[in-house]
Amino acid sequence: MPILSKYIQPEVLNRIAHARFDPKQLVEGTLAGAHKSPFHGFAVEFAGHRDYVPGDDIRHLDWKVYYRHRRYLIKQYEMDTNLVCHLMLDVSSSMRYGEGDAQKLLYASRMATTLAHLVVEESDRVSLTTFDERIVQSLAASNSLGQIVNMGEMLDKVEPVKKTRIGPSLMELAARAGRRSIVVIFSDFFVDLDDLNDAIQRLRYDKHEVVLMQVLHNDEIEFKLPGMIRFVGLEEDNQVLARPDDMRDSYLEAMRQFNERLESIATANQSERLVCDTSQDMAVLFADYLHTRSLADRRL
Asked: What is the Cα–Cα distance from 113 to 87, expressed in whole angstroms?
């Protein structure tokens, strides 16, 4: 389908075909899945009894039944081990920066769609929410491959024309996300960082794992721009005519301080942060990230 070819690149999928996107913490859910449950095989939905056999964990004995009928019965529950992954995509004006495949919004959209495909392939559920000053559109979590098509159709309708205000959108997600899950945010994070910190704290309080995918154009990272440039604000109505060489040092210092603050927020909230340079091969970026993540999982 044309919509899939725009957002799903076969070479990226081939590179990560055998990779997994597992949670770094225990997950909860209502379907059988491939991840560890915090209930060690006993979840919150009662399914029935069976007779006690030597070696069973006595914590799961039904003492009420014992006192009534003098029988040792083990309470059984449905295994709760499925993953829910919520993808949050910044569709504000600043994400328009860049041309072709290096445009931040297109790169982030492809990353989100690729990650969603990886999640669905594991029979886990994924949702997508786009936001600028508020939540723009949202797809409920699903583990159907049709979800990828729905995501592509939703992304094709995006019009990045507004400013970014990330806090309210993340707070709204936290209010409706329910049980613990993975929340992956794709943004340049040119936002009020105190606002972001408060929202991440809320998500972490609810035991969600948070991953910050900071999508930046190489110009924003290295600021290697030639000649005289007219800088036009994407989220502010202003223009500046300047020579990049004259401002590179001050720009890079301001960017360094900004990134240090963003990293400190991620670290303080035990969240991941990955810088995604849109000039980088996405297949390499994803493969390296998933490999590093899997190694970190083994050390936990």
From this structure: 9
